[in-house]
Specification:
Layout (H helix, E strand, L loop, with lengths): L2 H22 L9 H11 L3 H4 L2 H8 L3 H25 L6 H8 L2 H30 L7 H18 L1 H32 L12 H4 L7 H6 L2 H8 L15 H10 L1 H19 L11 H9 L4 H33 L17 H20 L3 H33 L15 H19 L5 H23 L10
Helix pairs in contact: 2-9, 2-13, 5-12, 5-13, 5-14, 5-18, 5-19, 6-7, 6-18, 7-8, 7-16, 7-17, 7-18, 7-20, 8-9, 8-16, 8-17, 9-14, 9-16, 16-17, 18-19, 18-20
Length: about 475
C-alpha cells in the first residue's frame, strides 16, 4: 500500500471517528434500550399491510402469496443488513438522508430526507384516519373527534421523551406479536386436534388442492409484489433510532439479525396456518384474513379482537411517523437543507418544531379526508409505497458505495458487514426495480407512479432555490 493510500485511509478513519463523535453531540438523548429497539424492529415489520392488505393479495395470488412474502422477506433482510453495515460505520439519527448525502451527493440527501418525511406524514394521515374509523366499531363517535384525540396523545408522547415513545411502541408491538402468535397456535390446534367449526375441513392440502399453489399463474403472484412490499414498509425505522439508542453497536445488529425469523413466523408461518384452516377461495379483498379465519372457526369474538389489533397497528404506525418526521426535519435543518427553526429541541431532547409541524399536517390531512374522501386524496395516499421504497434504494446504493470505498482503505471498515454484498444489494435493487415495473402494469397501483415526477419537480426547484440563496453553504457541496 502506498503512503498516499495510507494517508487517505487514515484521513477516512479520522473522518469516520469525527462523524461518530458528532452523533453524540446532536443533542438527542440515548433513551432507547435493547428491549425497546427489539420491539420497534419487530413492530416495524407488522402493520395493517398484513392484517388488512393480505386479504386482497390472497384473492390475487392464492397460496403462492406465501412464496411472495418469503422472497420479499429475503430482499428485506438484504436491505436491513446493508443498513446495518452503514449504521455500524456511523450511527447517526439522520440515517438514510445522511448516508445519501455522504455517498451519493447533497441533492440525494435532500431528496431522501424530504421524501422519507413525506412518506411518514402521508402514512400518519392514513393511519390516524383508519384508527378513527376502527373506533366506530365500539363507539358512536365522530371520526374527526377520535382522530384529534389520537393525534394529540401521540404528539404529547413524542414530545415528553424518546423513552416514552419507545415504551409505547414496545406495547403496541406486543399486542401485534401476541395476536399473530395466538392465531398461529389456534390454527395449529385446529389442524392437530380438529376442534372448532373449521376442524372437519382444515387441512394443509388447501395449500395446493384448490387450483394449485399458483391458481392464477406466476403473473398473479408477481402482481401482488407491491402489496407485499407495502406490508414491509417501516421495517427500516430501526435505522432512525441509531442516534438515540443506548448501545447502538450492540443493540442494532441484534435487532437486524432477527429479521429472517420475524418474517418466517409473522408472515410465512401465519399465512401457512391461516390458508390451511381456511381455503384461499373464501378470502375477499377488503376483509382481513384474520377476521375471515375467526369467522370460519365460529369464534364470534374474532372480529372484535382483530379490530383491536388493527387499531393498535394503526396507532403504532402513526406513533412511528411522529417520531421519524421530527428527526428527519431536524437532520435536514442541521445540514442547511431545511428551515433552521426545525433544529430546536426540548429539554428532554426531542425535536419540538419538526414534530409539531408534522403533527399539524397529519391533522390537516384528516380534515381533508373528512371533507373530500374522493380520488384526489387516494392519489396522495398511494404515493406512500413509492416514497418508502426510495429510502430502501438509497440504503442499498449507499452501502455499495461505502463498501467500495472501505475496501480501498478510504474509510474504516464496518463491524457489521453485510454478507454477500455488494451482490446481495444489487439483487435487492433489481427486485425493487421489478416491483416498480409491476406497479406500472397494475392500474390500481399505477397512481403512485404519477405522483413521483411531480414530487421530484417540487424538490428539484426547492433545492435550486435554496442553493441559489446560500451558495457558500457546505450542505450543497459534494463531500
Amino acid at each position: 500500500m502506498t503512503s498516499a493510500k495510507v494517508d487517505k485511509g487514515q484521513a477516512g478513519r479520522e473522518a469516520g471517528a469525527a462523524a461518530h463523535d458528532a452523533t453524540s453531540s446532536e443533542g438527542y438523548q440515548r433513551g432507547l434500550g435493547a428491549r425497546q429497539i427489539q420491539m420497534i424492529a419487530i413492530g416495524g415489520a407488522i402493520g395493517t399491510g398484513l392484517f388488512l392488505g393480505a386479504g386482497k393479495a390472497i384473492a390475487k395470488a392464492g397460496p403462492s402469496l406465501i412464496l411472495a412474502y418469503a422472497v420479499a422477506g429475503l430482499v428485506i433482510f438484504f436491505i436491513m443488513r446493508a443498513l446495518g453495515e452503514l449504521l455500524m460505520y456511523r450511527p447517526v439519527s439522520g440515517s438514510f438522508s445522511e448516508y445519501a448525502r455522504e455517498f451519493v451527493g447533497p441533492f440525494a440527501g435532500f431528496v431522501t430526507g424530504w421524501t422519507y418525511w413525506l412518506f411518514w406524514v402521508v402514512t400518519g394521515i392514513t393511519e390516524v384516519t383508519a384508527a378513527a374509523q376502527y373506533m366506530t366499531y365500539w363507539f358512536d363517535i365522530a371520526q374527526w373527534v377520535s382522530a384529534l384525540i389520537f393525534t394529540t396523545i401521540l404528539y404529547a408522547v413524542n414530545l415528553i421523551s424518546v423513552k416514552l415513545f419507545g415504551e409505547l411502541e414496545f406495547w403496541f408491538s406486543m399486542v401485534k406479536v401476541t395476536a399473530i402468535i395466538g392465531m398461529i397456535l389456534i390454527c395449529a390446534g385446529i389442524l392437530t386436534l380438529g376442534f372448532s367449526d373449521a376442524g372437519d375441513t382444515a387441512s394443509v392440502t388447501h395449500l395446493w388442492s384448490d387450483g394449485g399453489f399458483f391458481p392464477h399463474g406466476l403473473s398473479g403472484t408477481l402482481m401482488t409484489l407491491q402489496i407485499v412490499m407495502f406490508a414491509f414498509l417501516a421495517v427500516e425505522l430501526v435505522g432512525v433510532t441509531a442516534g438515540e439508542s443506548k448501545d447502538p453497536k450492540t443493540v442494532l445488529p441484534k435487532a437486524i439479525n432477527t429479521v429472517p425469523w420475524r418474517i418466517a413466523v409473522f408472515y410465512v408461518g401465519a399465512l401457512i396456518m391461516i390458508l390451511s384452516v381456511v381455503p384461499w377461495t373464501e378470502f375477499q379483498p377488503g376483509i382481513s384474513p384474520f377476521v375471515a379465519a375467526f369467522q370460519k372457526m365460529g369464534l364470534g369474538v374474532g372480529a372484535a379482537i382483530v379490530n383491536f389489533v388493527v387499531l393498535t397497528a394503526a396507532l403504532s404506525s402513526c406513533n412511528s411517523g411522529m417520531y421519524s418526521t421530527g428527526r428527519m426535519l431536524r437532520d435536514l435543518a442541521l445540514n442547511g437543507q431545511g428551515p433552521k427553526f426545525f433544529t430546536k429541541l426540548t429539554k428532554s431532547g426531542t425535536p419540538l418544531i419538526g414534530t409539531t409541524f408534522s403533527a399539524a399536517l397529519m391533522l390537516v390531512g384528516v380534515w381533508i379526508n373528512y371533507q373530500w374522501p374522493g380520488d384526489a386524496f387516494n392519489y396522495v395516499v398511494s404515493f406512500a409505497t413509492i416514497s418508502g421504497m426510495w429510502a430502501w434504494i438509497m440504503i442499498l446504493v449507499c452501502q455499495i458505495r461505502y463498501r467500495f470505498r472501505a475496501d480501498r482503505g478510504e474509510l474504516p471498515q464496518s463491524t457489521f458487514r453485510a454478507p454477500g454484498a455488494p451482490y446481495t444489494s444489487v439483487f435487492a435493487l433489481a427486485f425493487i426495480g421489478m416491483v416498480i415495473v409491476m406497479m406500472a402494469v397494475d392500474k390500481d397501483a399505477r397512481i403512485s407512479l404519477y405522483c413521483a415526477p411531480l414530487w421530484a419537480l417540487i424538490l428539484g426547484v426547492s433545492y435550486l432555490v435554496l442553493k441559489a440563496r446560500n451558495p457558500e453553504n457546505k450542505a450543497f457541496a459534494k463531500r
